[in-house]
Amino acid sequence: MDVVTQAKVSAYSPPYAWRLVATALSFLIFGLGGMILSVVVFPILNLLPGDAVSRRTRARRVINKSFSAFVQIMYRLGVLTYSVEGAEHLGKPGQLIIANHPSLIDVVVLISLIRNSNCVVKQSLWNNPCMRSPIRAAQYISNSGSVEMLDEAAAALQGGQCLIIFPEGTRTTPGKPPEFHRGAAAIAIRGAHCVTPVTIHVTPTTLTKAEPWYSIPARRVHIQLRVGADIDPQQFKAAAPAPIASRKLNDYLHQYFIKELATDERITTRN
User: Fold this and answer.
1) Residue 6's closest CA among 122, 79, 90?
2) pLDDT, tens digit, for every residue of 11-67?
3) d(Cα 174, Cα 167) in Å, to the nearest integer?
4) Deepest of 78, 103, 105, 189, by most Cβ within 10 A of its Cβ?
């Protein structure tokens, strides 16, 4: 059985006014941090000796450490608490990590858990002044949905990288089950050694697609990440041609997440 490897949980919730200020401060810190990384840190990293792989690894570790620090800042400011079950199973070579996407924060938390992960990110972030330099230095993959993107992601996995992808392509609508695009399953069939599902439950909901940053909930947010058992994509690939195999894997993952998230919801309601 997996164990809780990381947890920052507290029943105390700071006052609403303080959490509103702390949330604004967190956004400010994130923006300033991104600018410092873009203008100062990554230009210096690019001057250090090493090949393209070494530079990429350094960039990803800087992002990992920065995100880890940012999560701790949000915790200490009283914005959120979190728990992670099974983090020790993340970061394996050729591992495709598939997660639902209920909040803007979950991306930061998940990347903070893995030292040297690749990630499929929104195309718009490539032009974001706070994020474009770190994203390019880390050689993250744009979610353009093109055949080239699928090939690039599959090649990264075949090359031994760990890749994070959010198959919904955007944040989940609160109260509705996730809807997965088939691209993640197609990538898995093409190149993944294993597929590892990570269910993310955020309660109360915050920073969804329909909620501005200042619309904070009545109490402090708790983020729960639970790492599931590895799935062998070859069991789907061996039984059917690639297009059918990717559809069956996508259906399997969709049903898995619906079931696991419903279980999390029932547990949260009882507590």
Assistant:
1) 90
2) 678 999 999 999 999 999 999 999 999 999 999 998 899 899 999 999 999 999 999
3) 16
4) 189
Rg (CA), the chain: 18
Which is it for strands 141-142 and 4-8: parallel, antiparallel or unpaired? unpaired
b/e burial code for range 229-241 (CB count within 10 A of at least 16 → b): ebbebeebbeeee
Using CA atoms, how far apart are residues 163 and 193, in angstroms rounded to an integer?
11
- The pTM score is 0.91
DSSP sequence for 55-116: HHHHHHHHHHHHHHHHHHHHHHHTSEEEEEESGGG---TTEEEEE---SSHHHHHHHHT-TT
Tokens of 30: 């994130």
State the greatest distance between any 2 C-alpha atoms of the chain, in Å, as a whole number: 56
Closest by CA to 172, choosing from 220, 209, 198, is: 209
Where do the domains of the chain lie?
4-270
DSSP state of 231: B
Is the domain 4-270 a CATH 1.10.150 member? no
Query: What are the tens digits of pLDDT across the range 170-217?
Result: 888 887 888 898 899 999 999 999 999 999 999 999 998 888 889 999
Tell me the residue ranges of DSSP E strands in the chain: 4-8, 80-85, 95-99, 117-121, 141-142, 162-165, 194-203, 221-227
